[in-house]
């Protein structure tokens, strides 16, 4: 019986098209590739991995994480910059939160420069590309071990 609490890895709108969506920005790897890399990086720790284009569903997934996850990696995509409801949900999460972006949002258009999620995230990772996701899993393990929020 695995005693380790799961980590949640949540992805927001349009990331279901990763690999086919603006590959010059987001690359050619798919979300299925990302999920496989994350599960490998997590080792024995269970991973709950989701993508949704719905703000309501993303918030429901954060609520599920509140009740059972040791830590959370979230790429909220466009909801990063628009959703106070998502911010309010994330504030309830007691474990470490890594806000993750494939691209360096700070080097892009100004509309991508103000993140509501950063107001509660433990740390932000941006610009590493899709191959940064497994690095975020390893970083989250460190934050969990340090009981960092
Ligand atoms: C993904 C998106 O879909 C955009 O809305 C963000 C983020 C950037 C990313 O780099 O993963 O602006």
Uncertain runs: none
- What is the tally of beta strands? 5
The helix count comes to 5
Fraction of residues in β-strands? 15-25%
Q: Provide the number of structural domains.
A: 1
CATH class: Alpha Beta
Q: Name the overall outline.
A: globular
Strand order of the largest sheet: 2-1-3-4-5
Mean pLDDT: 97
Q: Could you say which small molecules are bound to this protein?
A: 3-dehydroshikimate
Relative helix content: 25-40%
Task: Give a verbal description of the structure.
This protein is α/β, with parallel strands linked by helices and 149 residues long. The chain has one domain: Rossmann fold. 34% of the residues lie in helices and 16% in strands. It has helices spanning 23-26, 31-42, 55-68, 84-91, 133-145, and strands at 7-11, 47-51, 71-75, 97-101, 123-126. It has a five-stranded parallel β-sheet with strand order 2-1-3-4-5, with helices on both faces. Helix 4 (84-91) links the parallel strand 3 and strand 4. The longest helix has 14 residues, at 55-68. It starts with 6 loop residues before the first strand and ends with a helix. 3-dehydroshikimate binds at residues 14, 75, 77-78, 101-103, 105, 112.
């Amino acid at each position: 019986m695995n005693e380790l609490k799961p980590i949640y890895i949540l992805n927001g709108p349009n990331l279901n098209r990763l690999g086919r969506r603006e590959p010059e920005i987001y690359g050619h790897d798919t979300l299925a590739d990302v999920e496989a890399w994350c599960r490998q990086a997590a080792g024995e720790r269970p991973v709950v991995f989701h993508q949704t284009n719905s703000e309501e569903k993303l918030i429901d997934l954060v609520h599920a994480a509140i009740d059972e996850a040791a830590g959370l990696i979230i790429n909220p995509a466009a909801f990063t910059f628009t959703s106070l409801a998502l911010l309010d949900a994330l504030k309830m999460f007691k474990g470490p939160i890594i806000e993750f972006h494939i691209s360096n949002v700070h080097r892009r258009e100004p509309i991508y420069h103000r993140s509501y999620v950063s107001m509660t995230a433990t740390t932000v990772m941006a610009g590493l590309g899709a191959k940064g996701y497994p690095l975020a899993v390893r970083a989250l393990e460190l934050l969990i071990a340090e009981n960092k929020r």
